[in-house]
């Protein structure tokens, strides 16, 4: 146990708290297809700053994506997903630059506020027709990349776009899984170029990948045809809750 604490640069209490948080986030990720990073970032930031959580979260997202990729590849809306990934690569360096060189609390608060408003609009069945265009697709991807670089919650932006498409639950979930896998794979280069992926980030990522993967396996068991009709409202409510939690944390910081 001591060598794990030394490698992760955590106290025993911090380690146990992060293990519990990543297990819970993994369960939600297994069911919804997203929200792992958002949940960890919104809660674990009291232990580690965002810039140290971002490299750890890369490994957690990748481990979860590997477990879920089979269905994601087969059932996802691939053209939509590829467009989002390509556009996100443009936004990632901008977001990391903001994180490393500017005060970003205002940017995070703005991004989270937009997510709350848009998700509530979706729950109210308002038609956001501007999203159903190439500009809406690529604009969403770029914003997701920026938000990923700032707070690693770009998946929430993409989740909103995918949910707005109003496709079958299995297609929405699979598209999110595929996006997060491809996005994580391609963003490693950006993290290395900016010097964000360091030894402690890798160590924490590999260690906490274990409870994350166990949680994902549990969460996948919850995604059944019986619960499919509740998938979209559950995800939208989850988006609102996570965004509000992030806003509260931002204001108290």
What does this structure look like?
The chain has helices at residues 2-8, 12-32, 36-44, 50-75, 78-101, 105-123, 134-151, 154-164, 169-193, 199-222, 231-252. The protein has 253 residues and is an all-alpha fold. It has one domain (2-252). Helix 5 runs parallel beside helix 9 (169-193). The longest helix has 26 residues, at 50-75. Keywords: Cell membrane, Membrane, Transmembrane, Transmembrane helix, Transport. InterPro entries: TM_pro_TauE-like, TSUP. It is a multi-pass membrane protein. Its main location: membrane.
Keywords:
253 residues; mainly alpha; globular
Q: Brief description of this entry?
A:
The chain is mainly alpha-helical and 253 residues long. It has helices spanning 2-8, 12-32, 36-44, 50-75, 78-101, 105-123, 134-151, 154-164, 169-193, 199-222, 231-252.
Percent strand equals under 5%
Tell me the distance between the termini. Answer: 32 Å
**Compute the gyration radius: what is it?**
17 Å
Main sheet record? none
Number of domains: 1
Molecular shape: globular
Mean pLDDT rating: 84
Query: Structural class given helices, strands, pairing?
Result: mainly alpha
Low-confidence stretches: none
Number of helical regions: 11
Query: What is the number of strand segments?
Result: 0
Helix content: over 70%
N-to-C series of helices and strands: HHHHHHHHHHH
Give the SSE layout.
Layout: H1 2-8, H2 12-32, H3 36-44, H4 50-75, H5 78-101, H6 105-123, H7 134-151, H8 154-164, H9 169-193, H10 199-222, H11 231-252
Protein name: Probable membrane transporter protein
Main location: membrane
Pfam families: TauE
